[in-house]
Design brief:
This protein is an alpha/beta fold. It folds into two domains: 3-186, Rossmann fold (3-Layer(aba) Sandwich); 194-335, Rossmann fold, CATH 3.40.50.1980. 31% of the residues lie in helices and 17% in strands. It has eleven helices and 13 strands. The strands form three sheets. Strands 8, 9, 10, 11, 12 and 13 form a six-stranded mixed sheet that branches. Strands 5-4-3-6-7 form a five-stranded parallel sheet, with helices on one face. A two-stranded antiparallel sheet has the order 1-2.
Amino acid sequence: MTNLASSRLSRRGLLGAGGALALGAVLAACGGTSGDAKGADGGAWSFTDDRGQKAEAKTRPRRVVAYVGAAAALWDFGVTDRIVGVYGPAKRKDGSRDPQVGDVDVSKVEVIGNAYGEFNIEKYAALRPELLVDHMFVKPNLFYVPAESKDKIFKLAPSVGIQAGDTTLTTPIEHYAALATALDADLRSPTNLAAKDRFDKAVASLRQAVAANKGVKVLAASASPDLFYASSPAKNADLQFFRQLGVEVIVPSKIDQTGYFESLSWENAGKYKADVILLDARTQALQPKDLGSKPSWGNLPAVKANQVFGWDPEPRFSYAGCAPIIERLAETIKNARKVA
């Protein structure tokens, strides 16, 4: 993917059949295509990623640098003592934690870049990285790794790419679980078992909400000063999963070349009639409070009905990260009125 395409995906609306997979299936994935992991702290280690590339090391990596979303997923699964650096939105301008970094303790890791295009190779090298981990939205490109610097970056440590786009939500969750296991996390820990149970219950509640309130049409979107982006469930893992659970997510008709969204002028923001709008809540996107000057925004049926809710186009690909998202969507569908 070109820098331009990556930048668009990072700024705009990036971003399931059925229910959650059994924990046994996740554990089994540790021996599968994306989880072909071997080794321990005292022996040779390898992991085959979603590019089909095998990352190899003499011992299990202890110094991991990761894109914030990847770090957040691994952290949720219990990989908390090996992450030494992150890149991507980690801190807000006021110094507070960016939601995209999840529960990662940003006071204890080095931030080697806080926005798209920022990847300080010198800081990265100084961390003595043993493994680089990142999402892939457009295969085989690692998200937020600058294309012009990737050769230098990849020479410093083996890398793992986990497919996060053009798939369904449970797949990257499985694959991050497999990688976490390869990095010595215990998926059968009480914390992980509780997170998986909450995820399963959230999925069941969303199914029930859809069945009880049929016909609610949902549009996932992202807002910028000049354009309104209608996101496609075909590429966004969470939206694809929601559709498989029965949610009526609107499918835009003129998707851009990356396949993730349709770019609409603000004059045409009402092209799709939605009862509910899931609006990109990331730091780089405009929020409802920023859109008062756009008359077309205020005229949307979902806006008039106060049925606009925050959306995470880059969910944390873990059971702990996704369960609250699915719970909120279930509550949203349950209480939504048909207004479009």
